[in-house]
């Protein structure tokens, strides 16, 4: 009785393509260790790789990934006409911003209809982008990530999309917003039932935010604030275990009432009031 052997994909030289013969789940896992841009670029390797990136459950993207200096096009981007950099810093960063937005839109439009596990993003917004926004965060939040870690550096004020504060799957939210004046975080409502860790940097917070936060985050155990302006009168939580305020400015008399707290670190500049 003849037995047939399973064939493995081979290269043009007749060598066995060991990576190409791996299951899709393994290839997806391998790509998850790359940046999102690098993962997408693997689509040119072969037909097998064309859509593998679309199933990677991680979005890891940085503005610098789209920089090309002094006409160097080693990034492999397919630029629009006139997108050649000539060494001018503003022009290089403007082009990088346009590439970032195109890539982000294309990624969200073409990835598989599956949830994301983790989102890590760093974005610069410059003075030549007066209408720039972080609206793509709305689309990201709809993909039910468990972790969002973003850093936005902008010369303009920012409006953080409300959907970020109503993502039922979110367990860890870290947000750093470097602007000329600290961005006021004021969502209409907060509903983050799974959130355990919240880290906010360079923002402005008021009593209304804190009230919504502790009402809408019944599982919140860690709250870390850095370089922020605090206009609230109290931090009151029955479940909070870790509280840290680093280099924050306090503008109100603040009371801390957290019976389950096991770690407290405060490095604050008291403008008015006290603790």
From TrEMBL:
Superkingdom of the source species: Eukaryota
SMART domains noted in UniProt: FBOX
Domain F-box: 16-51
Entry-linked PROSITE patterns: FBOX
Protein name as it appears in the record: F-box domain containing protein
Species: Carex littledalei
Lineage: Eukaryota, Viridiplantae, Streptophyta, Embryophyta, Tracheophyta
